[in-house]
Amino acid sequence: MDEDVQQTTTVANVFAPIGDESACLHWLWTTLYAPDGVSTVCRHCRVMRRFHRVSRRRAYACDHCGTQVYPTAGTFMQGSGLGVATWFAAAWQLMEGDANVAPRALADELSVSYKTALRIKRKLEEALAPGSADAELLERLRRDAGGPGVAAAGVPARDRSSRARENIRAAACRAFAARGPSATRIADIAREAGVSSAIIHYYYKSKDEVLLAALQWANEHTSRQLHELRQETSDPIELLRRTIDLAIPSEGVLREEYVLWIETWARVRLHPHLLAECAAMSEGWVTFFQQLVEDGAAAGVFHPVAPAAEIAQRMVALSDGLSFRSAIGYTGMQVQRVRELLVSFVAQQLGVPPGALAER
Ligand SMILES: [Zn+2]
Hints:
By secondary structure, the chain is mainly alpha-helical.
């Protein structure tokens, strides 16, 4: 795989504001996939896992199944044998230095050939163009690498604290999922996060708040998957089929999220401020389904039996109800059964053949 091409030793492989090649890759990894540096949703396990850096590859692998993520994939750096640090240094030059830098000067600065500098410059000009898929990534690089308010360590204080929070939220999610929220103590979360209990108390007033934060973390990951799904397909049937897969706790997967949901709901009565947060997360699902129904109807593929907003509420309510039963282990509520019931209901509501939504 060309992602693994060893970069030539002549290339300057340090981008000072972020660090050496490995630090630059890590920045990309945390920016695009794992805000806490270790946790992201594994596309094979379909649940949040810990990942580790794969040595001598530009990749991180799932601790559980070994599935790898290449952070440069899908970016302007994909398929390039040049180091991430070299790309960052070049991008910095175009963003913060001279946008019209001559290829010869760029070649000297990066210690690459004239031809390579020309190619880098052309590629970056595309990536920096308004509306390009990479524009946001490069803007984050610009922000993280410099600008006012950068602390001595090279990371703005605000970002440091948000990273600490990300780390705690991800660790809490893993700890709650492993032991169940009732049996999980703040000390357990602190150990999982590699920080002291005092740090957890500094960010969160109570275990309930940590629980909510963990649930939000899990929910944000699901939202991200829904967003990616939309980028991958615009076929309403395909989108619906795959959204159903994300909505139910398939093969124990996403079960943790449902268990966190149940625990959080149980606490709403005693802590009313949790209610708004829970409602907002449910609303995210309703909005997504509603949009899906509207788009499918506009395309003439769906023939909804009621207004889209109402169908979306029904779908989420049924999906929640069946999934909760499945997650806590009702007999006869295996994931397969939940899926069948949901599919036949959704098919009926939208006037599509159930076979079209069958699992593949
Ligand atoms: Zn995995």
